[in-house]
Amino acid sequence: MSTAIQRQFAGGTFTFRLPLSGILAVESGPVTPALRKRTYPVSIFEIYDELSVGMRLDAEGNITRYPGARIFAGDIHNILEQALKAGKSGERDGQAIVVDSVLANRLVNDTLEDHFEACALLAWDILHSTIQGVALKKKDEPPKPKRPRRSTVGKS
C-alpha cells in the first residue's frame, strides 16, 4: 500500500512520503535547536492528534488554529522536510525537480512562516496517509483440524 501523496506546495506540485526513517526523525524532533520547543521523543500519533484537534475551518472556509492549540512549528517543519526528502520529486512551472535535503529545507523555510495553517494541514495530511498506509495484519493462524465425522453406516 502506497503512502506517498502529491500536493501543491511552494509554488509547485511535490511528492510527500514518510517512510520509517522519516517517522523516526519526526519523533526524535527537529535537528535545529531553535525549532525544539518541546521535549522529544514524541509519537507521530500524538502529533497527529494535536494537529487534528488544533485546526478548523472558519465561516469563510479558511484554515485557522484553535486558540491554545498545541501545534508546534518545529514538528510541522520536520514533517514537511522529511516527507519532501523521501518523496524526492516535484514539478514547478512544468519543470521536473529533484528534491534533496538542501532543497527540502529551503522550500519549508521559505513557505512555513507565511502559510503556517496550510502547512499544518499538509503535515496532518502526510501523517494521515502514513498512518492509514500502515496495514497491520494478524499472523495467519493455522487452520483448526476438522473433527472426523462419525459414521452412521452399519450402526443400528
Could you explain how this protein is built, in words?
With about 160 residues, this protein is an alpha+beta fold. The protein has one domain. The strands form two sheets. A four-stranded antiparallel beta sheet has the order 1-2-5-6. It has a two-stranded antiparallel sheet with strand order 3-4. A hairpin with a 2-residue loop joins strand 1 and strand 2. It starts with a strand and ends in a 23-residue tail after the last helix. The mean pLDDT is about 85.
Can I get a quick summary?
Residues 145-156 have a biased composition (Basic residues). With 156 residues, the protein is α+β, with helices and mostly antiparallel strands. It is 42% helix and 15% strand.
Reconstruct the topology from this structure.
Layout: E1 5-9, E2 12-16, H1 20-28, H2 44-54, E3 55-57, E4 63-65, H3 73-87, E5 89-92, E6 95-98, H4 101-112, H5 116-133
Antiparallel strand pairs: 1-2, 2-5, 3-4, 5-6
Helix pairs in contact: 1-3, 2-5, 3-4, 3-5
Question: What strand line-up does the widest sheet have?
Answer: 1-2-5-6
The number of distinct helices, counting runs of at least 4 residues, comes to 5
Described by strand count, sense and barrel closure, the largest sheet is: 4 strands, antiparallel
Q: What does the average pLDDT come to?
A: 87
Uncertain segments of ≥5 residues (pLDDT<50)? none
Helical content (DSSP H or I, runs of 4+): 40-55%
The N- and C-terminal alpha carbons lie at a distance of 59 Å
CA gyration radius, whole angstroms: 23 Å
Q: How many DSSP-defined strands?
A: 6
Overall body shape: elongated
What's the order of the H and E elements? EEHHEEHEEHH
What portion of residues belong to β-strands? 15-25%
Helix/strand-derived category reads alpha+beta
Total separate domains: 1
